[in-house]
Design brief:
heterodimer, A: about 220 residues, alpha/beta, Glutaconate Coenzyme A-transferase, eleven-stranded mixed sheet, two-stranded antiparallel ribbon, 15 strands, B: about 220 residues, nine-stranded mixed sheet, three-stranded antiparallel sheet, 12 strands, globular
Chain lengths: ~220, ~220
């Protein structure tokens, strides 16, 4: 199992049956593969659809894409709508969960994921709306970036939202941000707490025994 | 009955330097034929309000490549390296707005509202220069309306009164922009007789549409 698959499998376990979930582009999109069909989860894409499904070969429709512009399928029971409605779902408290990638998260659980000033300025797209008002925000990311720490004491990149995210899932650990700081809840199979600490700049608090991630 | 016209004629009536809203999300639901015509007629100096600048060769990405745009208001430009290059070279100014805020600003423009209060972007770089208000103990940003001289819209079906029906995720910003453009041009995959789109199935009433163009680019 590679790192991204491990992260996707662990995040999938957070998803409640029957809920409405928005997955970001890249790694977060992989999460859908590990959510069983019988969980009856509805996936939203902010460009205007609930009910994204797998796409059978040769069934691409040029009027049906996800938020990355990739061709998708729609399940029976899907609904399509305009962008104002789609963001009403997001800001209005109707979206149960979003899973997004991250560039940095700080000790208060604040996320930066939309700009590296002077280097990469892609824009925030829907990320600020999603982080500000999804009912639950999960950051799914590789723990470090080419040796650079990403879970930092203080952000040096511009924040996406002042809201504290609910959970950080990496290939090393599951971390829960709260008022007191970042609580280390779980480690990946075979990973020691010391390894997680070494790869993390922010202080990790341990309140209860750290458990091993369950992935199946 | 509305005026049906060719893309060439429709675009020839648009002045250089117009402020233009163009529907679409990564090129899906974008009036490609009208964009090709803007490029062919070299209509420059445009202010473009659109969700994203797609990719080079796709959707509004073609306007960026042809250097017809001087200012763009969008939520995302990351998939078009040419937009980034022109922005860094200061050939193009870019205003980045959260997607949900952008569509609400356009909605305000078309719906006669003085602005909208959103919790999105409070305390971020995108809040700079904006008024912040506390309502019931929570912080909101006041986002002001956006309007345009022109809206270029893409629909699946259009009848001869201009009633529109969109398809799947090709809907996106189109119905909102159809309310906010002073003159609205629709490129439709299919032109159908009045009555073919049942009243319940009309997404945008024809009264908002000024010019109808049959798409030559099937989508």
């Amino acid at each position: 199992m590679n790192d991204k698959e491990l992260i996707a499998r662990r995040v999938a376990r957070e998803i409640q049956p029957g809920s409405l979930v928005n997955l970001g582009i890249g790694l977060p999109t992989m999460v859908a593969q590990y959510v069983p069909a019988e969980a009856n989860v509805f996936f939203q894409s902010e460009n205007g659809i609930i009910g994204i499904g797998g796409l059978p070969d040769g069934m691409e429709n040029p009027s049906l894409s996800d938020a990355g512009g990739g061709m998708i399928g729609a399940l029976p029971g899907a609904a399509a709508f305009d962008s104002a409605f789609s963001f009403g779902l997001i800001r209005g408290g109707h979206l149960d969960m979003t899973v997004l990638g991250g560039l940095q998260v700080d000790s208060q659980g604040r996320l930066a994921n939309w700009i590296i000033p002077g280097e990469r300025v892609p824009g925030m797209g829907g990320a600020m709306d999603l982080v500000t008002r999804a009912r639950k925000v999960i950051v799914a990311m590789i723990h470090t970036a080419k040796g650079q720490v990403k879970i930092v004491d203080k952000l040096n990149l511009p924040i996406t939202s002042g809201r504290r995210v609910d959970l950080i899932v990496t290939e090393l650990a599951v971390i829960k941000p709260c008022e007191e700081g970042l609580i280390l809840k779980e480690v990946a199979p075979g990973v020691e707490v010391a390894e997680v600490r070494a790869a993390t700049e922010a202080e990790l608090i341990i309140t209860e025994p750290v458990t091993t991630m369950e992935l199946e | 009955m509305k005026k049906t016209t060719s893309a060439a004629e429709a675009i020839s009536s648009i002045p250089e330097g117009a402020t233009m809203m163009i529907g679409g999300f990564m090129g899906v639901g974008t009036p490609e034929h009208l964009i090709d015509e803007l490029v062919r007629q070299n209509k420059g100096n445009l202010t473009l309000i659109t969700n994203d600048t797609a990719r080079p060769g796709v959707g509004v990405g073609k306007l960026i490549e042809a250097r017809l745009v001087k200012h763009v208001i969008a939520s995302h430009i990351g998939t078009n390296p040419e937009t980034q290059r022109q922005m860094i070279a200061k050939e193009l100014s870019v205003e980045l707005v959260p997607q949900g805020t952008l569509v609400e600003q356009i909605r305000c423009g078309g719906f006669g509202l003085g602005g909208v209060l959103t919790p999105t972007a409070v305390g971020t770089l995108a809040a700079e220069g904006k008024r912040s208000l506390e309502i019931n103990g929570e912080q909101y940003l006041l986002e002001l309306p956006l309007k345009a001289d022109i809206a270029l819209i893409k629909a699946r079906q259009c009848d001869y009164y201009g009633n529109l029906q969109y398809r799947l995720t090709a809907q996106n910003f189109n119905p909102i922009m159809a309310m906010a453009g002073a003159t609205v041009y629709v490129e439709a995959d299919e032109l159908v007789p009045a009555g073919c789109i049942a009243p319940d199935d009309v997404h945008t009433p024809g009264i908002l549409v000024d010019y109808i163009i049959k798409s030559k680019v099937m989508a």
